[in-house]
Design brief:
Number of strands: 13
Distance between the termini: 26 Å
Number of domains: 1
Order of helices and strands: HEHEHEHHEEEEEEEEEHHE
Strand content: 15-25%
Structural class: alpha+beta
Bound molecules: nicotinamide-adenine-dinucleotide
Helix content: 25-40%
Radius of gyration: 20 Å
CATH architecture: 2-Layer Sandwich
CATH superfamily: Dihydrodipicolinate Reductase, domain 2
Length: about 300
């Protein structure tokens, strides 16, 4: 649906914010990106994790070279809402959600975040994907995402599933840094457990989305630190992403607000999109390339270059 709707909006000369992933295929994403260039309109993909205050702090530290050379980037994005074979959602149907599910839906968030905070592009992937339930029980009544299906008695039909529930992925980044990522929608107890760690030659930094206000800073030669989100303690460039004093939690809602604020500011100022921190259609297109490379790698069981 993103593809058709975005396409019509672009053709009408509108600036567009699209939900992620940008489309079902790389080819569609490329078409949208080209169309947005042709119509010279602003475009964004809602990879909102970029917009958290602590993520900005992490990125700014890396950008200023404080971590040193980046050697390793690793993490996970784990959920549990599809843990049982009785869990069903439109995302499971490859006609509606695309050939990739867990990787395209949440792995794309992690890959965008990894590339954004490190400033490094993924160059190569080696993946192993798994469909935990090749057959799921689809309720005959409609179910919205993340609702508690346990409470309902439903009539269901058995359907074949060809989209992955989980994946393990090795990564190589453009500077030679290595990485790995675990993506899952069947990990009990994990809700939106996105974690990312970057190991540099001077120090490490890591962040849990579910502890959005804490930045871990790891040292070899002195005690580690945890920076609690606090405008008084953050670097100048991260400040505009935080609205509240230290001790008041900021997270998903502020990230979303920042995403829209930055897009609208860019449009109103007729700015250069790359200066406003949101993901563009070009980034969304790159994500689709990564998703397709991951599927291909798992199929061929070898490294795939992007
Ligand atoms: N950026 C993020 O962090 C984030 C988080 C969650 C979801 N998403 C994205 O948001 C999108 C929606 O996901 P969701 O989990 O909210 O799905 P959902 O199934 O919970 O909700 C989709 C809604 O769209 C409505 N709908 C379906 N067809 C429609 C139509 N033709 N016209 C009008 N309304 C229609 C449905 O009734 C439903 O209320 C997806 O693209 C998903 O990837 C992004």
């Amino acid at each position: 649906m993103h593809f058709e709707i975005n396409k019509e909006a672009l053709k009408a000369g509108k600036n567009v914010i699209s939900e992620k992933p940008l489309s079902l295929t790389y080819a569609e994403a490329k078409e949208l990106t080209e169309l947005s260039k042709k119509h010279n309109v602003y475009n964004a993909v809602n990879f909102n994790y970029r917009q958290y205050p602590i993520v900005q702090e992490m990125r700014n530290n890396i950008k200023e070279g404080k971590l040193g050379n980046i050697n390793i980037i690793f993490g996970h994005y784990l959920q549990d809402w599809l843990l049982y074979d009785t869990d069903y959602n439109w995302r499971i149907d490859s006609e509606k959600g695309g050939k990739s599910r867990a990787v395209a839906d949440i792995g794309s968030h992690w890959c965008d975040l990894a590339q954004y905070v490190s400033g490094l592009k993924v160059e190569e992937v080696f993946a192993n994907i798994k469909v935990v339930y090749p057959v799921r029980k689809k309720p005959k009544n409609r179910v919205e995402t993340f609702t508690n299906k346990m409470e309902r008695v439903v009539d269901y039909e058995e359907i074949n599933v060809d989209t992955e529930d989980c994946a393990t992925i090795l990564l190589r980044f453009e500077n030679g840094a290595v990485g790995n990522l675990i993506v899952s929608q069947v990990s009990a107890g994990h809700k939106n457990d996105l974690f990312i760690e970057v190991n540099g030659s001077n120090k490490s930094m890591s962040w849990y989305q579910e502890k959005a206000n804490e930045l871990f800073v790891g040292y070899r030669d002195k005690a580690n630190e945890i920076l609690l989100k606090d405008p008084a303690l953050m670097s100048k460039d991260s400040l505009s992403y935080s609205y509240l004093p230290g001790g008041h939690i900021e997270g998903w809602s502020e990230g979303m607000k920042n995403m829209f604020r930055n897009f609208y500011t860019c449009v109103l100022q007729r700015g250069n999109a790359t200066d406003y921190s949101f993901a563009t259609f070009e980034d969304g297109m790159e994500e689709m390339k990564i998703v397709e490379a991951i599927l291909e790698s798992s199929k061929q069981q070898k490294w795939i270059k992007l």
